[in-house]
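Q: My collaborator sent me two sequences in one message, no labels, and asked for predicted structures for both. Can we handle them in order? The first one she listed is below.
A: Yes, handling them in the order given. First sequence, followed by its structure tokens:
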Amino acid sequence: MKKYELTSESMVFQGIELYRIKALVSFANVKEGETGGYIEKEDNLSQIGDAWVGGNAIVRENATVFGNAVVEEYAVVCGNALVDGDALVRGHARVRENAVVRGNATVGGNAVVHENGSEEGSAGRECRSRGSANSEKKRHARV
């Protein structure tokens, strides 16, 4: 059974048409009928687990959100990026290229994780480079 659907509400972001999502059932903190953020295609957000894209967040290209991960507010996940586990990407954060955010990691503020970067966290810990909300992680970085 599907937990969400693409709606007819769409927008174009950097030349790519994105569709707002709508929950078909209640799960985690999401209520049936609630609208979420924008995705390019169903492959961007797993129908399994409690993963969600909320607010005005965007997931596009080959990026994938699964497990119990949440992308919310104005965050953007793109390229071949993966967000899984109980990870949270929020604020104006960007996760792109081949980056992976997993576990209980939180990426927020104006942080950018890209190329082969990885953010992994344990419960209650917010992962940021040198403690800055405006940090940038790149190449083979691990926190």
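Q: And the one she listed second?
A: Here it is, processed independently of the first:
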Amino acid sequence: MSTLAVTLDPEVARLAPTLSALRRAIHQYPEPGFAQFQTVALVAERLRELGLEVRTEVAKTGVVGLLRGGRPGRTLLLRADMDCLSVEEATGAPYALQRPGYMHACGHDGHVAMLLGVAEVLTARRGDFDEAALPAGVQVLVRATEAYLGRESAG
């Protein structure tokens, strides 16, 4: 195991309960592509709490957070999609959807939660960017839809 992985394990483990709760909150209220107003508000609020520069309404309902590093140079972009599918959930899970007709059956709820977790770990290690290969920063993009095909959402 690399040194970086070993040093990140405690940080990631500490975030696991929070990220699980976040994923479940997103899962309960799925929103189709270009209509994710509740999810956008949640993501933007979390990124602002972390101290990132946040832009909303990117391609209608996308969100971008910028974590600046200490030097000029390349910026890394990390992304997740937040749209859902037009299917009914029949899992019976305690965090099952509260919005009939849609479901995060493709895992985007988990992807968004994980991306916010990465943003939190990187924010905590902001000072490390001065020594890293990507010193300019990291952009976190939560995109409205995976692939817009002229219909509601491609999932």
